[in-house]
Specification:
The chain contains 6 helices and 6 strands; from the N terminus they run E-H-E-H-E-H-E-H-E-H-E-H. It is an alpha/beta fold and 177 residues long. The chain has a 6-stranded parallel beta sheet, sandwiched between helices. Strand 1, helix 1 and strand 2 form a beta-alpha-beta unit.
Amino acid sequence: MKLVILDRDGVINQDSDQFIKSPDEWTPVPGSLDAIARLNQAGFRVVVATNQSGISRGLLDMPALNAINDKMVRALNQFGGRIDAMFYCPHSAESDCNCRKPRPGMFEEISQRFNVTLAGVPCVGDSLRDLEAAHTVGAQPMLVLTGKGRRTRQAGGLPPGTRVFDDLADAVRQITA
């Protein structure tokens, strides 16, 4: 099975330091929806793995998160693309959960649900925690310079083997080459 794991905020859609709290605040990164459709057309299953601490902080609730994700799915459908599964961590950074990236819990759950090893699986994110989670499970960390990606690259300390791309469309060109 060909699989790609994507972070949501900053990779698929524009990010906000105030969190994406409603469908009205969700705006795709230019080229990201077409890029996901190209992954699907190339036979990849696309999974989203996203930290959503805004839930534990009381900034949004589950109906709001579902409405945001529904908007994303509808927008993606217009490009002929799909997301095969969405995994999220609702916990704050202060919690001691295993599912919040950089911990590998979400990725381990993806591996179990899809019954695949994640060795070499492309994992695209814009933050160090996305890349660290990917590296921990042996996946291929891929940094995009959208969202927080430029700050992440400038801060340094990227996991070994991290590949850097301008945006999701650029990463997908390499993944599907």
